[in-house]
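Quarterly update, task 2.4: adenosine monophosphate-bound model.
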Amino acid sequence: MKIIFIGAPGSGKGTQSREFIDKYGYVQLSTGDLLRGAIIQGSDLGILAKNFMDQGKLVPDEIMIGLVKNYLTSQSEKSVILDGFPRTIAQAESLDLMLKSNADQIDKVIYFKINPQILVERLTGRRTCTNCSEIYHIKTKPGKASGVCDKCGGQVVQRPDDKEDVIVERLAQFEKNTGPTIEYYRTKKTLFEIDGMQRPSIVFEEIKKSLGLLI
Ligand code: AMP
């Protein structure tokens, strides 16, 4: 099973991905996490991606498509959640071709709908574990000890691109590029829209239902 989680930054894709990994053994490809890992390693990819990410811009399609192709080839047998990919129509079309050549397809696209005003508050207050990517929020979900991940003991920080000026650009990129990508999936009838402003436990139940998961 191949599922896409699509939605603006801060709409809850990462939080829900972690639930599906923990409870159903999905593997997740978060292209954002992959790029942040490359930046920490100081690889060529990381050096290139950092420039775009620091400005809230999208990393060029050719690079992202190559990365995802490698990943899917290595995980072809597994149930995969794609979190943060595709973000453009070119990425969506390439993904379809990649999967088709392997007699595979996207089963469902979950669109996390959310009011843009809420996103700025969610993102500026968001803190992320640098080790396991667990997500916290300074108001709604603070960790037990400041700066330390409850789950793994890793360091919890504010992502550089969760600062307000970068967020504005990331949201603009979402409107411009990912909006049309959502329409692409709507016409293919694989899109399931979910109200991302509900409590995470309710969002989880609704996604489960849409995927036909009964327990
Ligand atoms: P995310 O953690 O998904 O919000 O991604 C953080 C940043 O990584 C984005 O603002 C982009 O700069 C870059 N990025 C992640 N996924 C993609 C993608 N599919 N296409 C282009 N850039 C991406």
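Highlight for this quarter: Residues 164-188 form the longest helix (25 residues).
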